[in-house]
């Protein structure tokens, strides 16, 4: 499968940091670095918006998803507060990572730490068509556990 080309611009405060890359042959995500000038500590329950020092241009028909790294989430409780974050193809601002500390201890984040991962995925834009009635289905209005445990 051909790879969509994503342009990446390193911002001034991202200079010197490693560009995100796929760390294994079939990795789905590229880790995003924290482009902090100095370390920060996220208190339990605290939310921080972490710069990556990167702006990207994703081709039309794709999106970026900012997802947690499982190691950080499971070991420390540090996860993406709006997971999965959405990077629109037409967004040219800095990619930022919203993190929340769900763990019991403060978590320190240092410059260069890989705090989340970026997935490039195809998207479709639908056409909404207003209708007075919807076509019947077997499920109907059943949901929220209607099929049992
Ligand atoms: O984790 C994220 C989520 C979003 N963004 C950037 C890229 C995205 O294209 C833009 C808008 O995101 P979203 O649509 O989720 O936020 P919004 O609150 O709806 O803002 P807007 O009104 O600007 O769309 O913010 C990030 O850098 N990181
Ligand atoms: Mg939006």
TrEMBL record:
GO molecular function: dUTP diphosphatase activity; magnesium ion binding
Binding site for substrate: 69-71, 82, 86-88
Gene Ontology BP term (one): dUTP catabolic process
EC number: 3.6.1.23
Reactions listed under catalytic activity: dUTP + H2O = dUMP + diphosphate + H(+)
Entry-linked InterPro entries: dUTPase, dUTPase-like, dUTPase-like_sf, dUTPase_trimeric
Domain dUTPase-like per the UniProt entry, residue ranges: 18-148
Cofactor(s) this protein requires: Mg(2+)
Metabolic or biological pathway: Pyrimidine metabolism; dUMP biosynthesis; dUMP from dCTP (dUTP route): step 2/2
Keyword entries, A-Z: Hydrolase, Magnesium, Metal-binding, Nucleotide metabolism
Family, similarity comment: Belongs to the dUTPase family.
Role summary: This enzyme is involved in nucleotide metabolism: it produces dUMP, the immediate precursor of thymidine nucleotides and it decreases the intracellular concentration of dUTP so that uracil cannot be incorporated into DNA.
Record-given protein name: Deoxyuridine 5'-triphosphate nucleotidohydrolase
Organism field: Desulfoferula mesophila
Gene coding for it: dut
